[in-house]
Amino acid sequence: MPKLDESLLSPLPPFSRLERPQIRAILDQAVSRRADEGETIFEEGVSADRFFLLLDGTIRVVKITPGGEQVTSLHIPAGQLFGIAPALGRDTYPASAVTASEALFLSWPVSLWHPFVATYPSFATETYKTVGNRVQEMNTRIVEMATQHVEQRIARALLRLINQSGERTERGIEINFPITRQDVSQMTGTTLHTVSRLLSSWEKDGLVLSKRKKIIVCDAHRLVLLSGE
Prior knowledge:
With 229 residues, the protein is of the alpha+beta class. It has helices at 20-27, 113-119, 121-147, 150-165, 181-188, 192-204, 220-227; strands spanning 31-35, 40-42, 50-56, 58-64, 70-77, 81-82, 96-99, 103-109, 166-169, 172-175, 208-211, 214-217.
């Protein structure tokens, strides 16, 4: 892959307050890679030997329950770090990372994490802010599952996805990576049957369009009202 320019990273939060020579020094130590949709980048519980920056695509963060079921806990959009086990004080990955679409990412050996944090304070500040945002999102979802009706949970999940990875089209706001009803059921702690029934009902009412691996929100305002936000 051609040598990447510093301008590619300069708008992204971990690098936005760094000088171009500093970004160049970080880039020169990175390895770039493309991955197809559905490829596992790393698995939960294995030794964390690298950390990553997603340049294009979407990463699905997957946890395995004690019963062996897969649960999608987060979606990470382009422009964010992932696999940052050292930021959590861990030497193993706390979850698996699976590409939800074709992806392009950079990675660095985990041995560079502490030198980066020590040398570039703004890199550390922005990274821990990202960690805090993800923890807040997870806490919000836990509260939703404990207190919200299924319809509200599904509406809020779709709203989060279009806020993170929405793309405006003639028909509405499309989640710009492949997503199935099974994915939505995992994210909201409900059954596939319930998700299918609700999405079919919403489609008849003109709120969404749901096709194979594609969901388009046609009426975001009405979905906000359904979510109770």
